[in-house]
Specification:
The complex is a heterodimer of chains A (183) and B (301). Helices cover 38% and strands 12% of the residues of chain A. Chain A has helices spanning 10-20, 37-41, 72-84, 96-100, 131-146, 152-158, 160-171, and strands at 23-28, 52-54, 63-67, 90-94, 122-124. Chain A starts with 9 loop residues before the first helix and ends in a 12-residue tail after the last helix. Chain A is of the alpha/beta class. In chain A, helix 1 (10-20) packs antiparallel against helix 5. Chain A has a single domain, classed as Rossmann fold (3-Layer(aba) Sandwich), CATH 3.40.50. Chain B is an all-alpha fold and 301 residues long. Chain B has one domain (2-300). Chain B is 74% helix and 0% strand. The longest helix of chain B is centred in the first third of the chain and has 34 residues, at 2-35. The A-B interface holds A 15, 18-19, 21-22, 42-43, 46, 48-49, 51, 53-54, 56-62, 85-88, 183 and B 29, 33, 36-42, 45, 48-49, 51-52, 55-62, 127, 205, 209-210, 213-218, 221.
C-alpha cells in the first residue's frame, strides 16, 4: 500500500479489484475456437461466477478474445475493433494459432504470431483449449490485472509505430485499410 | 434550516434508490443464474460493474447530443424519483410530491427515453437507430394500458395526487384488491416497462448488439446502468404507492418492491423474445382490455 514508484497506489488497487472482477468479453470468433465460448459462458462452466460476461460491442468491452487463427482479411477488422475499445483493455490469444500459427504454420494468408500485431496479455494454448483452460486463462488475467501488470494497451501506445509497421507489412501498402479513423 | 433538511433528504433518497436498485439488479442476475442451474455472480456484482465502468477512460466523440443523452436519462430518473413519496406519512422523504403529480409523472417518465433516443441517434450506429424505433413502438404499446389503469384510479377517487391515493388506501384497503382490473392492466404494462423477456426487444443482445447503447462505453454505460437501477426503484416504489398501499418503513418497502420486481423477472425467465409487432399487439390486447374494464368499473360504480 506504499505510494512509491514500484507499487500501486491505493486508488489503483481499488480500481484493479473492480476491473478484475468485472470483465466484459468481446469474443471475436474468427476461427474454430468460437465453439468453446458458449459452454464457457452457459450453465456447464458458468464463467459469470467470476464476473466474466459477454459484451455486445467493442465500446463496452474490456477483453478482446481472439479465438483462433486470423487471416489477413480478419486482421484488419480485429485491429479496428481493438482500437475502438476503451482503456483499460486486454487481449487474450486463444488457441495455438495465435501463438505460432498452429496447424496454419505454412498458410499463405494467415498471420502466425498475434503478438506482432496486437499486444497480447494472456495466451491460452491448446487446439482447442477446453472451457476449463479458458477459465484458467481468465483467472491468470485477473491475477495480472490485480498486480497491475496487464499493460498491453500501454505497450501498444508506446510502440505504436512498430505495431503499425508490422500491420502494414502483412496487409500490404496499397490496401485501403488502417485509416486514421474519425471517432 | 428547513431547506437544508430537504436537500439532505433528497440526497439520501437518491443514494437509497441507487443502492437498492443496484442490489435488485444483482439479485436478478443471481436468480436468473439459479434458475438456469448455475452458480451465478455474487449479488454485489452490479456495484463492481458500475464502479469499473465509471473508472474506464472514455474517448468517443460523435457530437453534443451523444454526451447529453445519458445525462438526460439520469436527470429523468432522479427527477421522477424526487416526485414520488417513498414512505407513507414520513417527514424525511416528502421531497417534491405535490398535488397533481401523477399526470406530471406520466410525462416525466418518458423524458429519459426520448433523451436517450436523441443521444443514440447522434452516434449514427444502425443498431442504435433500430433499437430506438423498437423502444418507441414498445412504449406506444405499454403506455396505453398503463395510462388506462391510472385514469381509472383518478376517476374513481377524484384525485391525481399520489399522496391522496395512498391516503385513500388507508381508509378503503389496497387498490390491488379494490381495483383489480386496473392492477392487472398496470402489472401487464410493467412487463414492457422493465424490458425483460419477452419484451427485451430494445436491447436484444444477440440481435441488435445491445441496441441504443451500442456506441456507449465506459462512463456513459456506467451512468446508464446507474440511472436504470434508480429508475427500476422508482417504478417499483410507484407501483407500491399506487396499488399496495405504500410502505410505512423501509423493511416493508423492500419486501413489497422486491415481490413486485420478481413478477417481470420470473415471467421473463420462462419466455423467449417477442418481435416488435407481437409486443405491441400484446399490449393492445388483454392489458388494454383490462384497462378499459377498469375505467368502465370506475365510471359506473
Amino acid at each position: 500500500m506504499v505510494n512509491d514508484k514500484n507499487s500501486q497506489k491505493i486508488v489503483d488497487i481499488i480500481q484493479n479489484f473492480a476491473r478484475k472482477h468485472s470483465l466484459f468479453v468481446l469474443a471475436y470468433g474468427t476461427g474454430c475456437g468460437a465453439i468453446e465460448i458458449p459452454p464457457t459462458m452457459t450453465s456447464r462452466y458458468d464463467a459469470e461466477r467470476f464476473g466474466i460476461r459477454g459484451a455486445a460491442t467493442p465500446r463496452q468491452a474490456d477483453v478482446l478474445l481472439i479465438t483462433g487463427y486470423l487471416t489477413t482479411k480478419t486482421l484488419k477488422r480485429v485491429i479496428r475493433v481493438y482500437e475502438q475499445m476503451q482503456d483499460p483493455k486486454y487481449v487474450i490469444g486463444f488457441g495455438s494459432c495465435t501463438i505460432n500459427g498452429g496447424m496454419y504454420w505454412d498458410s499463405y494468408n494467415t498471420i502466425k504470431v498475434l503478438d506482432k500485431y496486437l499486444p497480447v496479455d494472456i495466451y491460452i494454448n491448446g487446439c482447442m483449449p477446453r472451457p476449463e483452460a479458458v477459465i484458467e486463462g481468465f483467472i491468470k488475467l485477473q491475477k495480472k490485472i490485480a498486480e497491475g501488470r496487464a499493460d498491453g494497451a500501454k505497450q501498444y501506445k508506446e510502440n505504436f509505430e512498430w505495431y503499425r509497421a508490422n500491420q502494414k507489412k502483412v496487409l500490404g501498402p496499397t490496401t485501403p485499410h488502417i485509416q486514421e479513423y474519425n471517432w | 434550516m428547513d431547506i437544508l433538511i430537504k436537500i439532505l433528504g433528497a440526497v439520501a433518497t437518491i443514494i437509497i434508490a441507487f443502492v437498492v436498485g443496484m442490489l435488485y439488479g444483482g439479485l436478478n442476475r443471481k436468480v436468473t443464474a439459479r434458475v438456469q442451474n448455475r452458480v451465478g455472480p455474487p449479488f454485489w456484482q452490479n456495484y463492481l460493474d458500475a464502479f469499473k465502468l465509471v473508472s474506464k477512460k472514455t474517448s468517443i466523440h460523435h457530437g453534443v447530443m451523444q454526451h447529453l443523452g445519458p445525462a438526460f436519462l439520469m436527470v429523468s430518473s432522479i427527477g421522477t424519483l424526487l416526485f414520488i413519496p417513498i414512505l407513507k406519512g414520513n417527514n424525511w422523504f416528502p421531497n417534491l410530491s405535490f398535488h397533481g403529480d401523477l399526470i406530471f409523472l406520466l410525462y416525466l417518465m418518458v423524458f429519459g427515453s426520448l433523451g436517450l433516443a436523441l443521444g443514440a441517434g447522434q452516434t449514427g450506429n444502425p443498431n442504435s437507430a433500430i433499437g430506438v424505433t423498437r423502444g418507441l413502438s414498445q412504449m406506444v404499446g405499454f403506455e396505453i394500458p398503463w395510462v388506462m389503469a391510472l385514469v381509472a384510479i383518478m376517476i374513481q377517487y377524484h384525485t391525481t395526487s399520489i399522496a391522496d391515493i395512498m391516503h385513500v388506501q388507508e381508509v378503503h384497503g389496497w387498490l390491488m384488491f379494490q381495483k383489480p382490473f386496473a392492477f392487472i392492466a398496470a402489472i401487464l404494462a410493467m412487463f414492457g416497462m422493465f424490458r425483460y423477456s419477452p419484451f427485451d426487444i430494445v436491447g436484444a443482445p444477440a440481435e441488435l448488439a445491445s441496441g441504443p447503447v451500442s456506441e456507449f462505453g465506459g462512463k456513459y454505460l456506467g451512468l446508464m446502468m446507474s440511472s436504470g437501477s434508480i429508475f427500476a426503484f422508482v417504478k417499483l416504489t410507484l407501483y407500491t404507492d399506487l396499488f399496495l398501499g405504500g410502505a410505512s418503513n423501509f423493511i416493508e418497502l423492500l419486501v413489497k418492491t422486491f415481490l413486485l420486481y420478481m413478477i417481470p423477472v420470473s415471467y421473463g425467465l420462462v419466455s423467449p423474445r417477442y418481435r416488435t409487432e407481437q409486443a405491441v399487439r400484446y399490449f393492445w390486447g388483454w392489458p388494454s382490455f383490462f384497462g378499459l374494464l377498469a375505467i368502465l368499473y370506475s365510471v359506473i360504480f
